[in-house]
Q: What sequence folds into this?
């Protein structure tokens, strides 16, 4: 009688992605952690395990306040974009328009161009001699000697550009969650006398919640560590936590220990947030009163 | 540990010097350069492979023009291969992380740091025929303990650029960078040099080596005035875009920025503050253990020629260490005071120098930016 052959399908399929994750995610994180505890150090300098970098960070008002400044900015950007993207996705998913996929394609069309170009284009729009100010001069609302200067090189510029960049990312998961919504529930609610607002509040919104949470996380997590957009349009006041990490590794004088501490802290916060929010990502049921 | 490394280098250099003399066919060469110790181990055998150059973006492409064209013509099989550095700290991090360029280019303030780091070895100036034409003050700034660790090349000033139609300075001072009247119209340089500038403004005796109390004072000044700075620039095109577009009226700037803004037709002045501008000089450095020292010397020699100097001045608007190089632009000639070889030294300017506590300065500057 033949012995049953071991089923290698699952390990075979999972092996490569797991090896990839270990080699290019877990091992690098381990190396960064080693730098943060001074187990590894840049150059031939004496080094040994220490919590000094972490202690300095946790007692530093500068780094932590910068982190909270970045959290605040990311929360504002994420909240506003989700609020803006929801009606857009709602229209695309539930209006029944035959052109919804064309409109969706238009929405994500900017993704077909370079991230850098999309950011730099805003410098042309927001500058003192940019499109907006030129329009204001032309209409006589502002004189050329008094342009609106706060448009570029400011926190506002960072928020505006981040919002523009991430809007399609936010709209897509909301669109998917609304698109898969069982329309019969809305019909039933209507048949039972529920107003449209009531049906929206008790059916549409709860069922779209996983998409909303996913959308929020999609924009909150990357913008929290963002450094390209702030460095291009943020100026002196748009400096964020991500810029600090980059600078610690590459400018002034390399301080990989502190840079690694900041990077790991960010990673930890993001991991915790993902865990906390993951429970909201499960499909929800609508319970009748 | 550094001492041991240096001792090792010196041992190698003595032997290298001997090789060099043998190759040159006499002791005359050694005598000619008695003031500068013989340095890099120069192999008589042909060196192979591409010359590995870690340099600033832009310096990799001279479009077949003089910058390093003479080198490529002489060594077509060993064309330079470039990796980019965004600043000296970036270069240091890359080298310490394992990058092995033959040559890289930090600026003069880092000469001592790298010379004592054990990462670089001295040059053999006699192998660089254009060496004799290089500005002696800059050559001296490239030396450490009598050895030529840096070969000077591009240079310029850190001073203040402003628009005369918009700005009326109260005095010729670095204080213009902190002037509340122009809040939101000022650009600072994103570098620890801002702490040095603050130190100069506060009249500290040695802004490059401030005490903790002085550093705190400099930092306090910068943090309290950070709201007037709209931009912290780190690359010239960023500054040109902001200044040329009218977003910025006053900037910590280099001579070339003045030339570029004049070309745009803006009414601008390049002001040397009374506390003195700071002069910077690019220094080619030879990595310790380079397997292509001969090629490296040839490459630096090509860069050091007057022809290359003129092209650098005309194309990039920086000065060149070759005293015979003259730009086509009389504006640049004046801005750099190219007819005055002492322009980079006192009483005209402070030649940028070593910051012994660079890591401390960096931390203070990071805190200014994060504030």
A:
């Amino acid at each position: 009688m033949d012995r049953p052959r071991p089923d290698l399908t699952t390990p075979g399929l999972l092996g490569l992605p797991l090896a990839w994750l270990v080699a290019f995610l877990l091992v690098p994180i381990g190396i960064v952690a080693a730098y943060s505890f001074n187990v590894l150090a840049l150059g031939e300098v004496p080094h040994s395990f220490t919590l000094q970098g972490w202690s300095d960070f946790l007692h530093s008002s500068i780094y932590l306040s910068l982190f909270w400044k970045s959290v605040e900015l990311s929360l504002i950007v994420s909240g506003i974009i989700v609020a803006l993207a929801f009606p857009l996705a709602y229209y695309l998913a539930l209006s029944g328009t035959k052109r919804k996929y064309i409109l969706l394609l238009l929405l994500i069309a900017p993704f077909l161009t370079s991230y850098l170009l999309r950011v730099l284009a805003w410098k042309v729009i927001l500058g003192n001699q940019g499109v907006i100010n030129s329009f204001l001069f032309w209409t006589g609302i502002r004189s050329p000697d008094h342009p609106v200067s706060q448009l570029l090189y400011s926190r506002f510029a960072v928020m505006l550009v981040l919002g523009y960049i991430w809007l399609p990312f936010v709209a897509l998961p909301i669109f998917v969650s609304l698109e898969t919504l069982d329309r019969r529930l809305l019909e039933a609610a209507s048949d039972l006398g529920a107003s449209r607002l009531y049906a929206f509040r008790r059916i549409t919104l709860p069922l779209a919640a996983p998409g909303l949470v996913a959308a929020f996380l999609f924009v909150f997590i990357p913008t929290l560590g963002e450094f390209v957009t702030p460095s291009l349009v943020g100026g002196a006041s748009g400096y964020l936590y991500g810029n600090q990490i980059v600078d610690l590794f590459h400018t002034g004088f390399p301080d990989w220990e502190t840079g690694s501490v900041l990077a790991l802290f960010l990673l930890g916060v993001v991991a915790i947030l993902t865990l906390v929010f993951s429970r909201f990502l499960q499909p929800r049921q609508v319970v009748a009163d | 540990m550094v001492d041991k490394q240096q001792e090792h280098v010196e041992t190698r250099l003595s032997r290298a010097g001997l090789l060099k003399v043998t190759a040159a066919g006499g002791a005359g060469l050694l005598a000619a350069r008695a003031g500068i110790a013989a340095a890099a181990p120069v192999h008589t055998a042909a060196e192979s492979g591409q010359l590995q150059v870690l340099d600033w973006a832009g310096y990799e492409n001279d479009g077949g023009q003089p910058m390093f064209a003479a080198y490529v013509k002489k060594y077509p099989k060993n064309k330079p291969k470039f990796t980019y550095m965004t600043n000296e700290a970036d270069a240091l991090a890359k080298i310490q992380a394992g990058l092995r360029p033959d040559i890289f280019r930090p600026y003069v303030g880092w000469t001592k740091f790298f010379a004592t780091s054990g990462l670089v070895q001295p040059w053999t100036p006699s192998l660089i025929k254009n060496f004799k034409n290089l500005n002696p003050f800059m050559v001296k700034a490239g030396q450490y303990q009598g050895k030529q660790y840096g070969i000077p090349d591009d240079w310029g000033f850190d001073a203040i650029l402003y628009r005369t139609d918009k700005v009326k300075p109260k005095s010729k001072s670095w204080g213009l960078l902190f002037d509340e009247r122009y809040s939101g119209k000022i650009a600072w340089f994103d570098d620890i040099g801002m702490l040095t500038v603050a130190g100069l403004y506060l009249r500290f005796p040695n802004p490059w080596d401030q005490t903790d109390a002085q550093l705190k004072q400099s930092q306090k000044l910068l943090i309290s005035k950070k709201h007037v700075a709209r931009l912290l620039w780190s690359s010239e095109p960023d500054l040109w875009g902001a200044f040329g577009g009218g977003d910025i009226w006053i900037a910590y700037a280099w001579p070339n920025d003045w030339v570029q803004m004049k070309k745009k037709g803006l009414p601008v002045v390049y002001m040397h503050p009374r506390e003195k501008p700071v002069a910077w000089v690019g220094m080619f450095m030879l990595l310790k253990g380079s397997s292509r020292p001969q090629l490296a010397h040839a490459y630096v020699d090509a860069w050091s020629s007057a022809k290359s100097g003129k092209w650098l001045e005309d194309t990039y608007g920086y000065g060149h260490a070759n005293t015979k190089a003259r730009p086509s632009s009389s504006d640049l000639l004046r801005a750099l005071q190219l007819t005055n070889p002492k322009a980079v030294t006192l009483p005209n300017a402070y030649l940028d120098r070593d910051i012994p506590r660079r890591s401390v300065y960096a931390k203070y500057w990071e805190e200014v930016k994060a504030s």
Q: What stands out?
A: Confidence is low (pLDDT under 50) at residues 1-38 of chain B. Chain B is about 40% helix and 15% strand. The interface with chain A takes residues 1, 86-87, 89-90, 92-93, 96-97, 117-118, 184-185, 188, 190-192, 226-227, 229-232, 234, 241-242, 245-247, 358-359, 361-363, 365-367, 369-371 of chain B (CB under 8 Å). Residues 72 and 79 of chain B are 6 Å apart (CA to CA).
